[in-house]
Amino acid sequence: MLRITILGSGTSTGVPLIGCICPVCISDDPKDNRLRTSIKIESDTTCIIIDTTPDFRYQMLRTKTTHIDAVVFTHPHRDHYAGLDDIRPFNFFSGKLMPIYANTITQVAIQRDFYYAFEADKEAGLPEMQLRTIDHETPFKIGDIELTPIEVMHRDMPVLGFRMRDFTYITDANYISAEAMEQIKGSKVLILNALRPNAHPTHFTLSEAIALTQSLDIPQTYFTHFSHQIGLHAEVDPSLPKGIGMAYDGMVITV
């Protein structure tokens, strides 16, 4: 069994959006308050984080996460990796390097922005990381969890989704090839990005995500990576077709 915790379900700005007074941004419903998109996956023996957002420290604190075995990255946009420096406490308590799984373009961004962690003569107390390259055609294993990379497109940027047993996670996409669709088919649970109702150049809209999900015949799908334009959770979630729901921060899914 896998236990998936939604650490964040908001877009790059988070929800509420700074300075906005729309109904979503001033809502007192906790499900309308969304940190940047990330998940935690746990088996009986392994804990993996997918993406370290700018909210990573708070996400770890509010879920009382005391140990992780590895961090896996989807792509090199800062709302998905900017919190990486905050892996340091995990280094302190484990006394080990943190395995960081990423494709080559994401590794370039990490080594550029966190250059100080890779210097030969670095100071004590800095992040301790071991970069491991993801080949998008080759499954890899962390503990007892095997991850199969699924390459999707975020406009012109390749983004990695992942299938783990009967669960698939896809974020920041607006195109999925026929080959990638075959990799997703057969999943029991899918998490998929659905930014907003209106067209967007790099993300699926709500209607596009619904159509894609229904074409795959997945028993249960949860949408994520919402902007404040998605609408109120209490209004949108009940309106979705059977087998489709809105993810929210703190949600726990078992597969």
CATH class: Alpha Beta
Q: What is the CATH topology assignment?
A: Metallo-beta-lactamase, Chain A
> Biggest sheet: strands, sense, closure?
7 strands, mixed
Describe the global form.
globular
Domain count, please report it.
Answer: 1
> Largest beta sheet: what is the strand line-up?
6-5-4-3-2-1-14
Provide the CATH superfamily. Answer: Ribonuclease Z/Hydroxyacylglutathione hydrolase-like
Unreliable sequence segments: none
Helix content: 10-25%
Instruction: Work out the helix count.
Output: 7
Strand content: 25-35%
Q: Name the average pLDDT.
A: 97
* Cα Rg: 18 Å
**Strand and helix order:** EEEHEHHEHEEEEEHEHEHEE
Distance between the termini: 6 Å
What's the number of extended β-strand segments?
14
Using the 3D structure, state the CATH architecture: 4-Layer Sandwich
Describe the overall structure:
The structure is a single chain. With 255 residues, the protein is of the alpha/beta class. The chain has one domain (3-254): Metallo-beta-lactamase, Chain A. The protein contains seven helices and 14 strands. The chain has a seven-stranded mixed β-sheet. Strands 7-8-9-10-11-12-13 form a seven-stranded mixed β-sheet. A hairpin with a 2-residue loop joins strand 9 and strand 10. The longest helix is centred in the last third of the chain and has 11 residues, at 206-216. It is globular.
Summarize the structure.
This protein has helices at 56-62, 78-81, 88-94, 104-113, 178-184, 206-216, 233-239, and strands at 3-8, 38-42, 47-50, 70-72, 98-102, 129-133, 140-142, 145-154, 157-164, 167-170, 189-193, 220-224, 244-246, 252-254.
